[in-house]
Amino acid sequence: MEVDKDQKPVRKWLVRNLVLAVLFFVALLIVTQVSLMLITRHNKVITVPDFTDLSAADAKIVAKRYDIRTEVVDSVFVKRFEKGHVFSQNPAPGSKVKKNRCIALTINSTQTKTVKMPNLIGYSLRQAKTEILAAGLTVGKLSYREDMATNNVLDQFIGGKYIAPGKEVEAESPVDLLLGLAPGENETYIPYLIGFTLPVARDNIFENSLNLGNVSYDETVHNYQDTLNAVVYQQSPAHRAGSAPMGTSVNLKMTVSQAKIAAR
Going by DSSP bridges, is the β-strand pair 86-90/102-108 parallel, antiparallel, or unpaired? Predict the structure, then answer.
């Protein structure tokens, strides 16, 4: 069957325009995808650095290097932490974010927080501990003097000085207690502390009428967050010692290495 010669130019025109339309749409698709990548920064993310332990000013400088921003949104009071330094952040270190993302910072307050000293005289050690923590303070050193009732609070001190009930003191200050000790009740049990975090180990130590001694951290502990996650891998006196006089100090070595824990 012969094709009309007049139809050939029309067919060529249709084919040419069809090809041009396809090329146009392909080009448009490529331009659109490139534009979206530029606008959304597709696959171009920033790893959030760790701002913990930095001052708010230093955190802002570091953030600028990473093309992100920081903003202080809250504050806490932690006595053992540097005042005015970053205590926590959101998103967390290591998170993936886009350029110019704002990282919310919580800093340790520069203002000292005070609380009222409770009256602990006559309380048992367990009751005194509850009152101390409820007041926003911490349990300090336990010392003993002969008395008719073991672990009965005879006196309360902060920094070696008697503190009267109701007196304003700095929050989280350690409260030292003078406790009674009945004749023949000098010995106490040494708990097994391996694998415990410091707060749990401390509670076990005080529950057994012992003192928290020296706390040291190994080379795996690099920052404040590591100290929170660290666990006991060595204690002295050891649990196998069985017992010790009340008021004995228990020294702890801390790590975040699970290998050291498994080796115990």
Answer: antiparallel
